[in-house]
Design a protein that fits this description.
Elements: E1 6-8, E2 11-13, E3 15-19, E4 24-26, E5 31-33, E6 40-43, E7 45-48, E8 56-59, E9 62-66, H1 67-74, E10 81-84, E11 87-90, H2 94-97, E12 106-111, E13 120-122, E14 128-131, H3 132-142, E15 147-151
Parallel strand pairs: 7-11
Antiparallel strand pairs: 1-2, 3-14, 3-15, 4-7, 5-6, 8-9, 9-12, 10-12, 13-14
Amino acid sequence: MVYAKGALGGLAVQHYRLKPEVAGGFGPGSIVDRSVHPPRVSRLDYSVADWLGDCIVTAFPTFLLLRDTARKIQAMSLTGFEVAEAIVSEAGEFRDINPDGVLPDLVWLRVHGAPGADDFGVTGRGELVVSERILEILVGDGLIVGSYTAWLSGASQEAV
């Protein structure tokens, strides 16, 4: 595997902080409560501006997966998430950037797990933390633009 698997400076690495591709933002069909932080989203319309092919994308504080990637993850005994439908629409510039482009088939990844304890978790700052099992799937399905770093359970992660 390409990423640091197993150890980092003598410490076991089992979870990773993931920064997914930002391929768009909230579309007009989204319902977002911005009176709380992070904002609470009850309906997600992801308006794609330019998708570069990653299997996971984001618009803070939400995450979306390609439907095929979501199916693989759902078939395993993993924790800290549920999958829901999302509206996926074209942003105004989508056709200008991608004249022959096709919108990705995305579903909403609703994360409710504890970072470092579950396979999917979100920090208090809204950062996605995934287990090594999840990272293997994401890298295999296409994590081209997104990035990840080791997330050490028990360390002070909120200030990093």
